């Protein structure tokens, strides 16, 4: 097949316009076209009022060889790459041990699925609850019907932190082996809409993710895998630099020489345990800031003009960055069109925000994190010092919010004028449990406050109204990424602990559902090859 890129058509083009564009591009007769499929559909909104759809198409013709020769200098015509996935190994007939996967976020789930597909019957250990039960606990906390459950919340439980998010399925990681396609195909096989295979910036939404996560679990179990909930790993056993197994909080010991560590970015007690056991850990950069909310209609109008609301465009998003005079960079992160700001705390006495959208993205507000990049120079002295900084900021937010898990908030106009907010404006905050207005200037380090105050007016030049006085800031956002990296070698094993495979976002090797799933596949392949060699 041939892959055609940069095929542009008007937003409201008829279906037959795609075939006409193919015939025109390749200069072939209709009878030479066998079929085509849409590989990717995005939009070009640089000209408001003239938004175009941009296609990448896979085309089958009777003249493929001739066309490749004739159009060999055209960068927009090429052979369609082989994106099919092939298992790298199969478990031996007599499997003497089983790999352990700690965590059932996207990384752990895909590591488990791949190991199960290769016949290794993995044991997946999850400190939290199954996704349905976890959802009940999380929503009860948000609605103030129940207190925070440290083991079952927006961070911990089946599906990981990505379950209570926008369900974004795009990434900037290099993926020459097309692992991302494998992730998307498996999600479709588990109930996701096939549109995620071709729409630009696909997303699933929280409610749909719940069912998909359940389906992934069922598929792992059907292939011989085992998933155990409320099974927090208390200790990692290491002898002479080699993993021997894990002990659960219940006291049970499970032996294995192959342990995948996919615990997510908030498993702070696990990070401490690993550090105490001598596993090599180093600090890494992350970001801190607030959630900002605007009317979604403002973002739609700014991005799409008179075509705002078109069904193919959906709710508009944005991506912003500003380099400040104090040397800091401020950027938008995890933008959730038509979404909600949610309580993402996982430890008592601390407040953390995050963003979430449903598939429809039809809530009244747009929200994103506006965060400042920080480095280990800002939290020197210890590999886990970034965690200590996160905790201090989250405790301060809890205090400013009144000590009830309400979050501290301030209107953008008041924040820029350095005065406390006393009443809400036209933008009503979506954060549940609730927002307590006041002064956010003491919730973050002074350099971060200074940088965000400089960035908001700069962002207003890109999106008119971004610094509107009634826009809502809610604090704090501290879990943008893991504050540590558990370094690994080329074979994906820990730098100094054989048999331990640090993986995903918590180990510092992913940032989002898709990249975490990709890393899970890579690590599962490494585990499988190691197990085959050790039994061969």
Task: Describe the 3D structure.
The chain has helices at residues 16-26, 64-70, 106-117, 131-142, 179-189, 206-222, 268-276, 296-304, 385-400, 412-417, 446-462, 513-535, and strands spanning 2-10, 33-44, 52-61, 77-79, 100-102, 123-125, 226-228, 233-239, 242-248, 253-255, 259-261, 282-283, 286-295, 321-323, 329-336, 340-343, 353-356, 365-374, 407-411, 435-437, 472-477, 484-485, 500-502. With 536 residues, the chain is an alpha+beta fold. The strands form six sheets. A seven-stranded mixed sheet has the order 14-15-18-13-21-19-20. The chain has a five-stranded parallel sheet with strand order 7-6-5-11-23, covered by helices on one side. A four-stranded antiparallel sheet has the order 2-3-1-4, covered by helices on one side. The longest helix has 23 residues, at 513-535. The model has no long low-confidence stretch (mean pLDDT 95).
List the helices and strands and how they pair.
Blueprint: E1 2-10, H1 16-26, E2 33-44, E3 52-61, H2 64-70, E4 77-79, E5 100-102, H3 106-117, E6 123-125, H4 131-142, H5 179-189, H6 206-222, E7 226-228, E8 233-239, E9 242-248, E10 253-255, E11 259-261, H7 268-276, E12 282-283, E13 286-295, H8 296-304, E14 321-323, E15 329-336, E16 340-343, E17 353-356, E18 365-374, H9 385-400, E19 407-411, H10 412-417, E20 435-437, H11 446-462, E21 472-477, E22 484-485, E23 500-502, H12 513-535
Helix pairs in contact: 3-6, 3-12, 5-12
Tag the structure with descriptive keywords.
536 residues; 5-stranded parallel beta sheet; 7-stranded mixed beta sheet
């Amino acid at each position: 097949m041939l892959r055609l890129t940069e095929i542009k058509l008007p937003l409201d083009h008829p279906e037959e316009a795609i075939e006409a564009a193919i015939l025109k591009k390749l200069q072939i007769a209709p009878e030479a076209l066998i079929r085509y499929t849409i590989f990717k559909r995005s939009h070009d909104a640089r000209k408001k009022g003239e938004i175009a759809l941009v296609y990448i198409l896979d085309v089958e013709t009777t003249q493929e060889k001739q066309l490749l020769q004739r159009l060999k200098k055209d960068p927009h015509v090429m052979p369609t790459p082989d994106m099919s996935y092939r298992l790298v190994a199969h478990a031996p007939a007599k499997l003497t041990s089983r790999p352990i996967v700690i965590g059932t976020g996207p990384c752990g789930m895909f590591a488990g699925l791949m190991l199960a597909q290769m016949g290794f019957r993995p044991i997946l250990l999850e400190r939290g609850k199954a996704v349905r039960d976890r959802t009940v606990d999380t929503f009860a906390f948000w609605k103030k019907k129940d207190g925070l459950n440290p083991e079952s919340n927006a961070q911990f439980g089946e599906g990981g932190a990505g379950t209570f998010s926008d369900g974004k399925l795009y990434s900037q990681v290099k993926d020459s082996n097309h692992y991302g396609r494998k992730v998307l195909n498996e999600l479709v096989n588990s109930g996701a809409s096939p549109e995620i295979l071709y729409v630009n910036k696909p997303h699933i939404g929280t409610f749909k993710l719940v069912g998909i996560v359940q389906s992934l679990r069922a598929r792992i179990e059907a292939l011989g895998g085992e998933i155990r909930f409320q099974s927090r790993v208390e200790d990692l056993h290491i002898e002479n630099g080699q993993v021997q197994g894990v002990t659960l909080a219940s006291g049970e010991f499970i032996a294995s020489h192959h342990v995948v560590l996919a615990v997510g970015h908030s498993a702070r007690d696990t990070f401490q345990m690993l550090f105490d056991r001598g596993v090599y850990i180093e600090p890494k950069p992350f970001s801190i800031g607030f959630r900002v909310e605007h009317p979604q209609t403002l973002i739609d109008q700014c991005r799409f003009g008179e075509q705002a609301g078109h069904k193919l465009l959906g709710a508009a998003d944005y991506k912003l960055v500003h380099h400040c005079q104090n040397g800091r960079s401020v950027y938008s992160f995890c933008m959730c069109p038509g979404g909600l700001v949610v309580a993402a705390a996982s430890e008592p006495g601390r407040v953390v925000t995050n963003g979430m959208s449903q598939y429809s993205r039809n809530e009244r507000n747009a929200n994103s994190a506006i965060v400042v990049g920080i480095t280990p120079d800002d939290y020197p002295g210890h590999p886990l010092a970034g965690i200590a900084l996160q905790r201090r900021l989250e405790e301060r937010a809890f205090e400013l919010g009144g000590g009830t898990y309400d979050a501290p908030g301030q209107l953008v106009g008041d924040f820029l004028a350095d005065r406390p907010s006393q009443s809400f404006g036209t933008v009503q905050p979506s954060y549940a449990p609730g927002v307590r207005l006041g002064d956010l200037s003491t919730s973050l380090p002074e350099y971060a406050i200074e940088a965000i105050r400089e960035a908001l007016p700069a962002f207003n030049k890109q999106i008119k109204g971004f610094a509107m006085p009634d826009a809502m800031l809610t604090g704090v956002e501290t879990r943008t990424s893991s504050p540590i990296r558990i370094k690994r070698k080329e074979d994906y094993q820990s730098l100094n602990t054989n048999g331990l495979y640090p993986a995903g976002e918590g180990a510092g090797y992913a940032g989002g559902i898709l990249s975490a799933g990709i890393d899970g596949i890579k690590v599962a392949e490494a585990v499988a090859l190691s197990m085959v060699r050790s039994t061969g």
